[in-house]
């Protein structure tokens, strides 16, 4: 915080430097409106959204004063900022599928961490628990997405392999829950079987970072991989790519 000469209150000053461009922002713009003093705590306070899982919440309290009709008034701008749920504006069916899985996974994390849930969220948890597993479980998370979000049918599409053979494949999410505890390690793979649990060997991995489907001549198991490792592996020379324009899922979420 900076302090104008002869004034006991302070202003909050933030300077950003991007390349050769420097910008400075001051709050409040007029020092006469400031309520910051030498004893004022920094107006942004970090805390945890849920104490037992690593979700950061930032509480912001910006005070200011001004004169109305000869009287000094005090106002506070208060808000909080926390991570948003998975992108609900996505139109890419691959991203929608991954987000559906991540959203239910985060909800189950919140439930078992003792977080406060709405009636609607508790109803979703009840459906999840009806699958017979306690805690976070990849099989139950997949079954929820398969049954609730996709009405019992993984989204599908056709792809032409290097041999010229055209195959129908079914996209589905996967997360090694015990590996990192980070839902961002969720990835999408495809099988030529439409079954809910077709096994963990695949020739097809979708990279949501590059919007491309990666194809391998021989199937490989993915049931111990996390996305941070897998996305580097699929860039190796024994994987080829199909642009998203040549492979489109025929069914998105309902």
Structural class: alpha+beta
Q: Architecture of the largest domain, according to CATH?
A: 2-Layer Sandwich
What is the β-strand count?
Answer: 11
Shape: elongated
Q: Give a short account of the largest sheet.
A: 6 strands, antiparallel
Portion in beta strands: 25-35%
Question: Could you say how many structural domains there are in total?
Answer: 2
Mean pLDDT: 77
CATH-defined fold name of the largest domain: TcpA-like pilin
Q: What is the CATH top level name of the largest domain?
A: Alpha Beta
Helix and strand run? EEEEEHHHEEHEEEHE
Query: In percent, how helical is the residue content?
Result: 10-25%
Gyration radius, to the nearest Å? 25 Å
Task: Enumerate the strands of the largest sheet in spatial order, edge to edge or round the barrel.
Answer: 6-7-8-9-10-11
Structural description of this entry:
Residues 136-222 form the Pilin PilJ C-terminal domain. Pfam families: PilJ_C (PF18223). InterPro entries: PilJ_C. This is Pilin PilJ C-terminal domain-containing protein. With 254 residues, the protein is α+β, with helices and mostly antiparallel strands. It folds into two domains: 12-81, no CATH class; 93-246, 2-Layer Sandwich (TcpA-like pilin). 21% of the residues lie in helices and 33% in strands. It is built from five helices and eleven strands; from the N terminus they run βββββαααββαβββαβ. It has helices spanning 93-112, 119-129, 138-149, 177-180, 227-233; strands spanning 12-18, 21-27, 44-48, 56-68, 71-81, 156-160, 166-174, 187-191, 201-207, 212-221, 239-243. Strands 6-7-8-9-10-11 form a six-stranded antiparallel β-sheet. Helix 1 (93-112) crosses helix 2. Residues 49-55 have low confidence and may be disordered.
